[in-house]
Design a protein that fits this description.
With 431 residues, the chain is an all-alpha fold. It contains 20 helices and no strands.
């Protein structure tokens, strides 16, 4: 088996080297600035092509975009401009901001109050169980430290808005399961769960870069969540009043909200040593307040964020694919898959606990369990961060992210579609 894998790797290297030589000799643009534009053109066109092809065979197009990135990246044909790959982290962060803003604008606080305790528990319990699984098993399976296991667990503990948000909003439109607010509950859980995991990741990655674990370090997580929510709520109230008084096109309002989101992230990084604050949680809270206080505006601008996401997700998933080291994946793959299964098993237990006593049937509860499977957006956005930070677990974290996306995105998407049609009832006017 090892001989065959070595042969495949060697053959792949020879093939890519030959193609790279021909490509750079005959086709590569001569000027660096043109090279970057050319790389963007390739990413968008091939990303759209993969999206179309995989859509026709009913597979998540996210996987096609990842493979486009692998082929174009330095471990594939090495076609992408280094200028572009150098700023890929910023591009991935912008994509994450767009999907979290869209999620916040899609949530209705009335629906969350209707569900109550289960919705709150889904925001952190399943993710916590999955992170605990990595803390318990990853050090032994992967030969890494507990802190590194926590970092990888916080990346993998997030469910994917790219898969869950469109699926749940579609169910809300169809009024399927809405009599018990099931899609709203899962939508809220997937959105807040992402922010929860990202906040934990930020705290742990800071410790891994040379910090020490103190009580004050552990307090940064809840403090950053509280300050992030406060910032988002206050900003939301003020921006709604501003939009009511100042007339402007919805497109301009979207630009204003994006600028605010960028400022939240900048503020988080600027004052992190003074006051910990979660910029991403502030973004979700901002969207929630706009939805609560000005639902007409939220309903008008949400489709515009959906349109922005079309381009953002292509850049996100292709660029994360470009970071993938095929050689490393082939050596670490089996243990990664095993750990992934353990993590999902723990997550299922956490989801089951969260949805118990929620007035759901066993079939509806099964739908909730499989809705927590998909990994994609946060893994794509954060999977390459430890590598960029120079952490020892960088390659492994990226490998977990990519394998997690490839396995759980299609599986979760398929199971959500099947179980929703089979187990969720359509709400009628009489109800």
């Amino acid at each position: 088996m090892n001989v065959s894998l070595d042969f495949v790797r060697t053959a792949f290297k020879l093939m890519t080297s030959a193609i790279q030589w021909q490509w750079h000799l005959f086709f590569m643009p001569r000027k660096k600035e043109n090279f970057m534009l050319f790389s963007l053109a390739l990413i968008i066109l091939l990303g759209l092509l993969s999206r179309s092809l995989l859509g026709k065979i009913h597979l998540p197009y996210i996987i096609g975009m990842l493979f486009v990135g692998i082929l174009l990246g330095p471990f594939g044909f090495n076609i992408l401009s280094s200028q572009l790959t150098n700023i890929s982290g910023d591009i991935r962060e912008i994509a994450l901001i767009i999907i979290l803003m869209k999620a916040g604008l899609s949530l209705d606080l009335k629906d969350l109050k209707k569900v109550g305790r289960p919705a709150i528990m889904l925001c952190f319990v399943p993710a916590s169980f999955e992170i605990i699984a990595y803390l318990l098993f990853a050090p032994h399976l992967m030969g890494i430290s507990v802190i590194e296991a926590g970092i990888i667990g916080s990346i993998m503990g997030a469910v994917s808005p790219a898969v869950v948000v469109p699926a749940m909003t579609r169910l809300i439109d169809e009024k399927r399961g809405t009599d018990k607010a099931i899609p709203q509950m899962m939508l809220a859980g997937s959105s807040a769960d992402d922010v929860y995991c990202i906040v934990i990741f930020t705290a742990l990655s800071g410790l891994a870069q040379g910090g020490n674990i103190h009580a004050t370090s552990l307090l940064r997580v809840p403090v950053s969540m509280v300050t992030g929510i406060a910032l988002g709520v206050v900003s939301g109230i003020l921006i709604v009043q501003f939009f009511r008084k100042v007339h402007m096109r919805d497109t301009i309002k979207v630009l204003v909200l994006l600028s605010l989101a960028f400022l939240f992230i900048t503020l988080e990084k600027t004052i992190e040593n003074i006051v910990p604050i979660s910029g991403l949680l502030a973004i979700v809270s901002l969207g929630l307040i706009i939805k609560a206080q000005h639902p007409i505006l939220a309903n008008r601008i949400t489709p515009k964020f959906s349109k922005l996401w079309v381009g953002a997700e292509i850049l996100l998933f292709v660029l994360v694919g470009a970071l993938v080291n095929i050689n490393y994946i082939s050596t670490a793959g089996i243990n990664v898959v095993f750990m992934l299964i353990i993590g999902l098993t723990f997550r299922t237990v956490g989801t089951f606990i969260s949805t118990t006593k929620a007035g759901l049937t066993k079939q509806e509860q099964l739908f909730c369990l499989v809705s927590e499977f998909p990994k994609a957006t946060v893994q794509a956005a954060m999977g390459g961060v430890p590598l960029a930070m120079g952490l020892a677990c960088g390659e492994l974290a990226l490998t977990f992210a990519v394998i997690g996306i490839i396995i759980t995105a299609p599986l979760g998407s398929f199971l959500i579609s099947v179980t929703s049609k089979k187990y969720l009832t359509v709400e009628t006017a009489l109800k």
